[in-house]
Design goal:
The structure holds 2 protein chains of 2 kinds.
Chain A lengths: L1 H16 L5 H20 L4 H12 L2 H11 L1 H7 L11 H26 L7 H22 L4 H20 L7 H22 L7 H36 L6 H26 L2 H32 L7 H23 L9 H31 L3 H28 L5 H24 L1 H4 L4
Chain B lengths: L4 H17 L3 E2 H12 L10 H11 L2 E6 L7 E6 L1 H24 L5 H8 L1
Antiparallel strand pairs in B: 1-3, 2-3
Helix pairs in contact in B: 1-4, 4-5
The chains are: A mainly alpha, B mainly alpha.
Chain lengths: 446, 119
């Protein structure tokens, strides 16, 4: 019997190491294994034989962990690249690939810069096309990594081609407001276009959408980290070279845009290869900032509710509010993506609800003020874009508040809330696309 | 008789939900029940039951509880919820539709299925 105990312990350790399987899963499986062994022993088999047959019946660990991983993709996210079964690109080959795409993006940006003669000249087409210099390379990087077929590549490329045509064929007026709106919204649209190859051309799968949300969050954190490192490097370079009388600005013209473009790809590839540090940090950051934002939002909601929005309300404030609401949304989404969906409500969910409800109140006030302004001055491109964004956010926040309140009262499952958010994601993409495609002709490219 | 893998997978949801509809249970007992019901013809890899149960839990079809029965190890019990019963009813309708269609094509061979499905 002693030997079976040690065999079970060994088996336990092995299964516990498999991706997608966590501690309580192993407890459950072990209970099953012991039952089976006991039954086989009762039927006359020796302990050893019983163990062998029971393990065999439980299924091979790879297949099993694959099933667990499919069900708990949140856990999987922490442990492996979801690729074809177990294939993991060789680290070196992976890095060369990353580097090639990063350099390509950097070259594209530099070609554009030299053509435009920036920063001495700043033609508006440069800002308008900014996303198009970098994000196609990110999409191609994923299309290649996910081994899309020809149809997949074509569909992945289509939005970029369309966007490039549209953005450059529209005859914008000089000092056009819609042109600035396009410059702001196009990168968002293109980011959603990257989701297509990222999700292996399966945009309907809600679990994959959640993966893309996780990817976006972690990519952002990596990008910020790389940018910070780059900033330190550049500051030191400037200090070191200053005494030599070299023109540091000329160097930066080359380094800064190239680095910013290349880092987009490098950050994505870091997320792909899952360096352990960030994946533990991202949920912690969310945990840390959700309460802080909740306090700040609740405070702001109370203050503005007391004083009214009237006097302070202007265009800059609207952008600040929108940025704030987007951050709240990102925190909620990211917090959710890092959470085990089968658990019951905890205090963090309550805090999140406070944040969402306060955001909702603020959003309502902004919308009210904005609609009053439109009634007074009529529609302009900026007001239309702002009202649209706020409406899109309002519906999302209202749905999220309703579902998370029900979840807290244990009338609903977290799964519902998650579904709501993943179902809603295309709405953001559609709204951004509307601003890029419909708004300019609607306002006569003014 | 060998039953196709896809068919085994497809029938797993209604089978397990139906077993849980009879009363709460735990993994090993559910599996024994499946084996007994199918006369051993449904070949399951035992371990695959658990991801399925976890999916039910995520979708709210079942509630789970860890308990330690006397003279036994800690064990996870699954109990069906109203949502789970609704899903089961839905599955039942689907399977009845499928078996009815097959019965029309193969008269005489599947009378039992229809009887069971409409019961």
């Amino acid at each position: 019997m002693e030997s079976v105990e040690s065999q079970i312990a060994e088996w336990r350790a092995y299964v516990a190491n498999a991706p997608g399987v966590n501690g309580t899963d192993v407890d459950e499986l072990e209970d099953h294994l012991r039952h089976q062994i006991a039954e086989l022993n009762a039927a006359g088999l020796t302990a050893d034989e019983g163990f062998l047959i029971a393990v065999k019946r439980l299924g091979d660990v790879d297949g099993l962990s694959g099933e667990f991983a499919r069900e708990h993709s949140g856990r999987l996210w922490k442990q492996l690249l979801r690729g074809g079964e177990g294939e993991r690109a060789l680290p070196v080959a992976g890095w060369i690939e990353t580097l090639l795409f990063a350099v390509a993006a950097a070259v594209a940006v530099q070609v554009a810069r030299l053509t435009a003669d920036a920063p001495d000249e700043e033609p508006t087409w440069l800002a308008r096309n900014a996303g198009l210099f970098v994000l196609p390379f990110l999409a191609a990087y994923f299309a290649r990594r996910r081994q899309l077929d020809v149809r997949g590549w074509a569909l992945a490329a289509a939005p970029f081609a369309l966007a490039a045509l549209l953005v450059n064929l529209y005859p914008y007026d000089p000092d056009s407001a819609t042109e600035i709106l396009v410059a702001l919204h196009l990168p968002v649209v293109l980011w959603f276009a990257v989701a297509y190859p990222y999700m292996r051309a399966t945009v309907r799968a809600h679990e994959r959408r959640m993966d893309f949300v996780r990817f976006t969050g972690e990519w952002f954190i990596y990008y910020v980290l790389i940018a910070l490192g780059g900033g330190v490097l550049m500051a030191l370079t400037a200090l070191i070279l200053e005494p030599t009388g070299m023109d540091v600005d000329r160097i930066f013209e080359w380094v800064l845009p190239s680095g910013a473009a290349g880092a987009v790809i490098v950050a994505a590839s870091l997320v792909e290869s899952k360096q352990r540090v960030v994946e533990n940090m991202a949920p912690v950051l969310t945990m840390l900032f959700t309460p802080l934002f909740a306090v700040m939002l609740a405070g702001a909601a109370v203050v503005y509710a007391a004083t009214g929005l009237g006097g302070a309300f202007d265009r800059d404030l609207v952008s600040v509010f929108d940025a704030l609401l987007l951050v709240v949304l990102a925190l909620v989404l990211y917090g959710m993506s890092a959470r085990d969906p089968s658990t019951s409500p905890e205090w963090m969910d309550g805090i999140q609800l406070v944040a969402v409800v306060s955001a909702l109140v603020l959003d309502l006030m902004v919308l009210g003020a904005m609609i009053a302004r439109i009634g007074e001055l009529g529609f302009s491109p900026n007001r239309t874009a702002a009202v649209g964004l706020n409406l899109v956010l309002l519906v999302n926040l209202a749905g999220a508040a309703w579902l998370s309140a029900r979840f807290l009262m244990r009338r609903s499952r977290l799964h519902r809330l998650e579904r709501w958010q993943t179902t809603y994601i295309p709405v953001f993409a559609l709204w951004a696309a509307t601003v890029v495609v419909v708004l300019p002709p609607l306002f006569a490219f003014g | 008789m060998h039953i196709d893998k896809d068919l085994v997978a497809a029938s797993a949801t209604p089978l397990v939900l139906a077993i849980l509809a009879d009363g709460e249970s735990y993994g090993y007992a559910i599996l024994k029940r499946v084996r007994a019901l199918s006369g051993g013809e449904l070949e399951w890899t035992d371990g695959m039951l658990y991801p399925l149960l976890h999916r039910f839990s995520r979708l709210g079809y079942v509630t789970t509880e860890w308990r330690t029965p006397p003279e036994s190890r800690r064990r996870k019990y699954y109990a069906i919820t109203a949502e789970g019963r609704a899903a089961l009813a839905d599955q039942q309708r689907q399977w009845v539709a499928v078996t009815r269609a097959l019965n029309d094509l193969w008269p005489g061979s599947g009378a039992v299925l229809t009887a069971a499905g409409e019961a």
